[in-house]
């Protein structure tokens, strides 16, 4: 059975699942809701928690809104734990402490002679 035939899985969710290698109900069952959700996140998509609940609902064959609150909390905690293990996003430096520099004397201000020079051509 393909993922498109599963309850709660619409075209966009099915496309994301296919793109991360989860093409069948068996693939999704083997991965589980949390791993499937994390694969989608790691692939660069930005799924909401509703997808997580939808994946769980697909696995237990119920509407995603019927997932009990305690189970939703377990799923979110599992995603948070898995997210903490991910490396920092590429292209963004790790945050560093912020420092502020104050000039105490006017003498330390940079010279503006270059900008005021009458010999300068614009």
Automatic annotation (TrEMBL):
<dbReference type="Pfam" id="PF04994">
    <property type="entry name" value="TfoX_C"/>
</dbReference>
<feature type="domain" description="TfoX C-terminal">
    <location>
        <begin position="3"/>
        <end position="78"/>
    </location>
</feature>
<feature type="region of interest" description="Disordered">
    <location>
        <begin position="87"/>
        <end position="122"/>
    </location>
</feature>
<protein>
    <submittedName>
        <fullName>Transcriptional regulator</fullName>
    </submittedName>
</protein>
<dbReference type="InterPro" id="IPR047525">
    <property type="entry name" value="TfoX-like"/>
</dbReference>
<dbReference type="InterPro" id="IPR007077">
    <property type="entry name" value="TfoX_C"/>
</dbReference>
<feature type="compositionally biased region" description="Low complexity">
    <location>
        <begin position="87"/>
        <end position="97"/>
    </location>
</feature>
């Amino acid at each position: 059975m393909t993922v498109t035939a599963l309850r709660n899985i619409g075209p966009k969710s099915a496309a994301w699942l296919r793109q991360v290698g989860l093409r069948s109900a068996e693939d999704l069952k083997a991965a589980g809701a949390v791993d499937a959700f994390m694969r989608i996140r790691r692939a660069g998509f930005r799924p909401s928690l509703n997808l997580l609940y939808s994946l769980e609902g697909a696995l237990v064959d119920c509407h995603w809104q019927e997932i009990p609150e305690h189970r939703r909390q377990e799923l979110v905690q599992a995603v948070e734990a898995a997210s903490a293990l991910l490396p920092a996003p590429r292209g963004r430096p790790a945050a560093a402490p912020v420092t502020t520099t104050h000039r105490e004397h006017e003498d330390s201000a940079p010279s503006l002679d270059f900008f005021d020079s009458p010999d300068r051509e614009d």
